[in-house]
Amino acid sequence: MIGSGTSRGRRPIGRGLQRPGSHFHIRRYNGHDSNDDSIYDVAKRTSRRVLDGHPSVRAGNYVIHTPERAITVLGVYTVRIGVDSIALDDRGEWLYYGPFSGDRLYRVATHDLNDESLAPEALGARVETFGPKTISDGLSIDAADTIYLSDPEHSAILTLGQDRKLTTLVKDARLRWPDGFSFGPDGWLYVTCSSLQHVMFRTTAHMRANAPYQLFRFRPGPAGVPGH
Fold this sequence. Notes:
The protein is mainly β and 228 residues long. It contains three helices and 16 strands. The radius of gyration is 18 Å and the shape is globular.
């Protein structure tokens, strides 16, 4: 739902769009879950799933390791997360995305995503492999089209430029599972640290013992659109 928290201000985003085990990240006009991207047209109030089951949105066979532990269920079952990292460039021309549990970042032109006449196979064929990545959660992008990726396994933030070279920008033990990004005024880039290694499948006592859960900021150099 989108709205003010009252029934009067809410609008449904496509009933049946979200599947069990999935969640939404909103990036201007689209959401996503673990096995596809989903587009919500604000003007028409319509929604549709795209790239359903495409290799670019599916989780790879990786075990997530943080400095504290491997992320598994009951110490046995691997947590595998599909498309989660997602960012739209400032011109609205390219959507960059990739599976959390994956080693490649992809992109697709928004005019192709918006073309409802394209068959699923035709749209899938227009997806580009953009470059390498680590296991990643949040993404952001600046005015120079440099992509910022969170790296929860190594407490790091990386960049992937238009030269398609992956570079470690910041590495700090305080970055416990860097997650979402947002540019603010004056060139600051904010990053949340959700510390999911201390939250997922943990007791309330454990979570409290490992508080606080922090928000950091730094100036990467190039500017970005505030809120992006």
